[in-house]
Amino acid sequence: MISYILALILILLALLGAPLFAVIIGAAMLGFHAMEVDLAVIAIEIYRIADTPVLLALPLFTFAGYLLGESNTSKRLVRLTHAFLGWAPGGLAIVAFVTCAFFTAFTGASGVTIVALGALLYPALLQADYPEKFSLGLVTVSGSLGLLLPPSLPLILYGIIAQQMDIGIDFTISDLFIAGILPGLLMVVMLSFWSLWANRKRPVPLTEFSIKEAGAAFKESIWEIPLPFFVLGGIYSGYFAVSEAAAATAMYVLVVEVLIYREIKITQLAGIIRESMVMVGGILIILAASLASTNYLIDAQIPMKLFELIQAHVTSKIAFLILLNILLLMLGAILDIFSALVIMIPLILPVAVSYGIHPVHLGIIFLANMQIGYVTPPVGMNLFIAGYRFEKPMDELYRAALPFMLVLFAAVLIITYWPGLSLIFLK
Amino acid sequence: MPTNKKHDKTITGSTVAALHRVEDIILIGLLLLMIGMAVTQIFLRNFFDSGIIWGDVLIRILVLWIGLVGAMTASRQDKHISIDVVTRYLPERAKHISKSVAQLVTASICAVVTYYSLEFVRMEAEYGGNAFAAIPVWVCEAVIPATFAVMALRHFILSFTSFKTVFKPPL
């Protein structure tokens, strides 16, 4: 009884803004205490961070992402994409989706995309005669596009948490990287078609393809073009492990942005390292906390009890998936993606696997749903960042983002109920 | 959101600023060491088919250290991941009261973790072996009580600051 009250108090504290890592550790300690386990177990669980080789990828990709966010990569990326895709109908909107997806995959949906790219794309869209509401909605929604594309941090984090759990189906982070590609592209394609349809009565003047401009843009970005090949080629060919690709990327980006483009001064570097490692610390300590709480959950057989409870009411896989969609959309509206992952995956994954859902597919479903959470009130992060960046009131942004959100929602439904889309390239 | 507090020119102020600088330098050193080490390992593995035997262990321990020192810095800047769905819409005064309470509990939880992880490290110092090369395991684990102790202190200060604001007449 007392432990229920204490648990309730902890949840209340979480809602009052207590850091989530403390709430999770507190809950785990309560649980272990009730089971009469020595609380030194908390330190042992935290130390398990050092037993997970693939975690190395997290600080390294984050650092690389912060470096790219601080340099002029966003400008070069827009120019390059525009030179190659800008001639097509709906060109600029498509350019916006593609660049945002690419940039977010590398910078990890931390709001950098809206700040760095939105600020370039929004005025460009207005200048190309796209309506204001449409342009605003586009940049707000695009801030989290690319979450499903490698090497996005949430994708890596999902893999790490799921692998800790020993659920009987083996998969690697590279599998997740492969699985995310088609669903991620589906979102980009559907949003592009929607943009064409939305502007069908207002033909935006086309720009002509210019070999000269394409060449110049290519030359300007020459040092950054190899990046995706580094990451993807290296991992898919099996030449690099994920953590090795992260190390190579961090080193490469560091050299290119600091020594070759010279857009980041050595003096700036200290601040960038600190800010990126604060983000890494925030994520890793929540992960450490959840290693402890997950261990408690498994000891107390809570996922099994949860499964029995749900099994009694939900019999079909489809019904479970519908419930899952609703739950995740609600969660996405109040939790940020990293805490949602570490709190919910240990509970949901065993249940989902019992319903015959592949763990890789679940990861894609989870992140696709969470992506919508970025633009739903009350705490959609993209809404806040776009509101701050473009100085627009929240309700205007929300209304502008709504049609795009509905398109994304349709994509999420396809991704959820068509496992093949995620799993087709897996062995 | 003030991320860099202006330090007054008192002796305490400059001491705190100096300590923050040391903390930054540790964080930067750890990351650069980690990148250097990881790249060296890739290089040795692919071109010379060898590697430093304890290199991979060191890298994994560096991840833990960076995570915890980063978390400690997050406490300093009050930048930990939290749910702000309720507090965002609270009136000013209630916001400070709830923050003060939430931070005080956070400080207590960190203090409890410090105590038990210190026990753990003490046990390991007696019975544990070496982590890599000649470095004993407990040295690598000592980062847990150390960072949690600082976090406990920092969240206590955050709690106290919010508490003080509650009674401050609005400007």
Structure description:
The complex is a heterodimer of chains A (427) and B (171). Chain A has helices spanning 2-15, 20-34, 41-47, 57-70, 73-85, 91-107, 112-127, 132-142, 153-163, 173-198, 211-220, 226-236, 242-260, 266-299, 302-313, 317-334, 337-354, 359-373, 381-390, 394-417, 419-423. By secondary structure, chain A is mainly α. The model of chain A has no long low-confidence stretch (mean pLDDT 87). In chain A, helix 14 runs parallel beside helix 17 (337-354). Helix content of chain A is 75%, strand content 0%. Chain A starts with a helix and ends with a helix. In chain B, helix 1 (11-48) packs antiparallel against helix 2 and helix 3 (92-127) runs antiparallel to helix 5 (143-166). Chain B is elongated, with a radius of gyration of 20 Å. Chain B has 171 residues and is mostly helical. Chains A and B meet through helix 1, helix 2, helix 3, helix 4 and helix 13 of A and helix 1, helix 2, helix 3 and helix 5 of B.
Task: For the structure shown, list the relevant keywords.
heterodimer; A: 427 residues; mainly alpha; 75% helix; 0% strand; globular; B: 171 residues; 73% helix; disordered N terminus
Structural class of chain B: mainly alpha
Which class best fits the helix and strand makeup of chain A? Answer: mainly alpha
- The unreliable regions of chain A are none
In DSSP terms (H or I, runs of 4 or more residues), the helix count of chain A works out at 21
Mean pLDDT of chain B: 87
Outline type of chain B: elongated
- The succession of helices and strands of chain B, N to C, reads HHHEEHH
What is the tally of helical segments of chain B?
5
Strand content of chain A: under 5%
Report the sheet-strand fraction of chain B. Answer: under 5%
User: Biggest interface, which chains?
Assistant: A-B, 64 and 61 residues
Set out the fold topology.
The complex is a heterodimer of chains A (427) and B (171).
Chain A: H1 2-15, H2 20-34, H3 41-47, H4 57-70, H5 73-85, H6 91-107, H7 112-127, H8 132-142, H9 153-163, H10 173-198, H11 211-220, H12 226-236, H13 242-260, H14 266-299, H15 302-313, H16 317-334, H17 337-354, H18 359-373, H19 381-390, H20 394-417, H21 419-423
Chain B: H1 11-48, H2 55-76, H3 92-127, E1 130-132, E2 135-136, H4 137-141, H5 143-166
Antiparallel strand pairs in B: 1-2
Helix pairs in contact in B: 1-2, 2-5, 3-5
